[in-house]
Amino acid sequence: QQQVKQSPQSLIVQKGGISIINCAYENTAFDYFPWYQQFPGKGPALLIAIRPDVSEKKEGRFTISFNKSAKQFSLHIMDSQPGDSATYFCAASSGETSGSRLTFGEGTQLTVNP
Amino acid sequence: DAGVIQSPRHEVTEMGQEVTLRCKPISGHDYLFWYRQTMMRGLELLIYFNNNVPIDDSGMPEDRFSAKMPNASFSTLKIQPSEPRDSAVYFCASGPGNSYEQYFGPGTRLTVT
Fold first, then answer.
1. Helix (H) and strand (E) counts for chain A?
2. Is the torsion defined by CA of A21, B90, A2, A97 positive or negative?
3. Is residue A103 a contact partner of residue A92, using CB atoms and an 8 Å limit?
4. CB contact, 8 Å: A42 with chain B?
5. How many Å apart are CA B93 and CA A88, to the nearest integer?
6. Residue B59 C-alpha from the chain's centroid
7. Which of A58, A91, B33, B61 could connect to B48 by a Cys-Cys bridge, CB 3.0–4.6 Å?
8. How many CB pairs under 8 A join A and B?
9. Count of other CB atoms within 10 angstroms of residue A58
10. B108-112 and B10-13 beta bridge pairing
11. Which of A:68-87 have CB within 8 Å of B?
């Protein structure tokens, strides 16, 4: 029940296209859903996050869509650029039971071709 | 702020040797996390501290692994004795007490031969 399932494992998109990465969870106690971006040789970096009281959050070209009833959330990267090529991780946390502990998805390796 | 600092960045050691990884969290952060990343298992939480106190060490693989946080600005992860299957990138992350955000360090790439 603590798992977060992420798909696809890898994604190739052309420059200017839309990249979409999906995550699903089971634990209804989760109340914080961040996305992390990781470049080779670096640590993951917080990209954008959402709470379940809203269905969408947008920051620049990055948007999280959240579907509470389906227990799913997704990351959309609009106008994808080669510099967006990285590994993306979704995660979830339930503050009441685990403090700041995050459960991570398996990761999606995104390649944006020029 | 310099962010989370980890040392060493790379460590190569022989099986059976003791390995100590070090972490300096962001000043003022109440939480500190140790993660291990491998291709096979992804990002695994090993242990985390709140105000220097270990809260959950259920991810620590076995007794060969131990972690300490003697003060708010320093933590260590020790592996004794090390084994080839411990080869991975180890990340330290810290987070403020008033949010769920975590800030990761650059990681230590450990190779055990």
1. 1, 11
2. negative
3. yes
4. yes
5. 17
6. 11
7. B33
8. 56
9. 12
10. parallel
11. none
Task: List own/partner pairs for B79-83 with CB under 8 A and 24 or more apart.
Answer: B79/B18, B79/B19, B79/B21, B79/B110, B80/B18, B80/B19, B81/B15, B81/B16, B81/B17, B81/B18, B82/B13, B82/B14, B82/B15, B82/B16, B82/B17, B82/B18, B82/B19, B82/B110, B82/B112, B83/B15, B83/B112
Contact: B100, A42; criterion CB under 8 Å: no
- For residues A55 and A28, what is the distance between their CA atoms, to the nearest angstrom? 16
Give me the phi and psi of B16, to 5 degrees please.
Answer: 95, -15
| Mean pLDDT, range B34-38, rounded to an integer | 95
Write the pLDDT tens digit of every residue in A72-109.
999 999 999 999 999 999 999 886 544 567 889 999 99
Binary contact (A100, B100; C-beta < 8 A): yes
Q: Which tokens hold the place of B60?
A: 């620590």
Tokens of A32: 């914080």
**Token pair listed for B59:** 């991810």
Place of tokens 């609009």: A78
Mean pLDDT calculated for residue range A25-39: 93
Question: Cβ–Cβ contacts within 10 Å for residue B14, how many?
Answer: 10
- C-alpha distances out from residue A28 to A72, A95, B102, Å: 11, 12, 21
Instruction: Assess A95–B contact: CB distance below 8 Å, yes or no.
Output: yes
Query: What does the mean pLDDT of chain A come to?
Result: 92
